[in-house]
Amino acid sequence: MDIKKLPKTEFAQAVAQIAGERNIDVQLIIDSIEAGLISAYKRDQKERGKEVAEDVQLEVELSAENGSFKVFQIDGDKKTDVTPPGFGRIAAQTAKQVIDQKIHEAERDVFATEFEKKVGSLISGTVLRSDPYKLVVGIGKSEAVCYKEEQIKNEIIPSGTKKLFLVKEVVRSPLGKSEILLSRRSNDFIKQLFVREVPEVANNAVQIEKIARTPGERTKVAVSSKQAGVDPVGSCIGQKGARIQLILNELPKTEKVDVIPFSNNLKQFIISSLSPAEDIVVEKVENDLALVSVPEDQLALAIGSKGENVHLAGILTELEIKINSRK
User: Fold this and answer.
1) Are 171 and 179 in contact (CB under 8 A)?
2) What is the rounded CA–CA span in Å between residue 298 and residue 190?
3) Which has more confidence, 176 or 211?
C-alpha cells in the first residue's frame, strides 16, 4: 500500500494523528498493519483447513469507500479478492494491536535513546520484582534490569525498595526491542557515588585515579589533587566523615571503603594501599613482585580478613604483594 495513495478515511486520519503525536513514521504503521493482516489471513485460512502455501503472493488494500481492508492473491497480472467472510472484525482487531504495539515500541525507543545519554551515571529506581537471575527496576514510566552478575553478592533488596543504580548499557536487539541494563557491582558505581557526594570530585579538583573492589566486602579508592590547597583524601572523607558516610549508606553494611592518596612513587603507593596497617616497610620491588614487612601487631591489618586488604592493594598497585612480619 502506497502511503501517498492512502484514502482520506477516518482510519487513515486516525493513523496520521497517532503518527504525528507519537513521532512514528506513518508508512511504518501501514506496512506493519499490512504484514499483520496477511499473518491474520493465513491464520484464519489455516483454522478453516485451507492453509496458504508459502509461495502464494498476498497483498492488502484499504478500501477508499469505507476504510476496510481487503486481501488479494496475486498471480502474475491476475488479482483475486480472497477476503474471507467476517474478516473485517479480524482486520480491525489486528490493526488496533499493531498500532498499540508500534506506539509501545516508539515510546520505548524514545526512552532508550534518553537513557543512552545517561550511560555511566547514577539513577534512582524502585525494585519491582526479583528472581534468582535479575532485579526488575522501575525507572519512571519504564523498567530496567539488573542481572545477577551486576548485583552485589549477598545483597538482598526487597521489592518496593528504592536504590541507586549505575546505568551500565542500553542494548537494542535487531527486532527493535531495547533493554536498559543496570549495575551496583561496577567500579563505576563507586566512582559515581563519589561524584554525587563530593563536590571536589564532581568539579575535577580531586581525581579518582584507581579503584579496587570486592563488592559487598571492601573497596579501596586512590585519589589525587592537581589543585593547590585541596586535600584529596580529606575532601572525600568530609568533616567528621560526613561525606564518606553518605557513600557508605548506599552500600551494604558489610562493605568498607578506604580512601587513600595516590602517588607516582611506587613504594609510597604500596604503603598507602596497605592501610589501615601502619609502619610498613617496602623491602624490595622487582618485576611484578613487592616484598613488604610490617610489625607483628600490624600483620593481620595488612593482610585483612580472608586476605582482602593485600589482595585489593595488589590490584591498585598492579603487583603481587608478599608480606612478612618483623619484630
Assistant:
1) yes
2) 28
3) 211
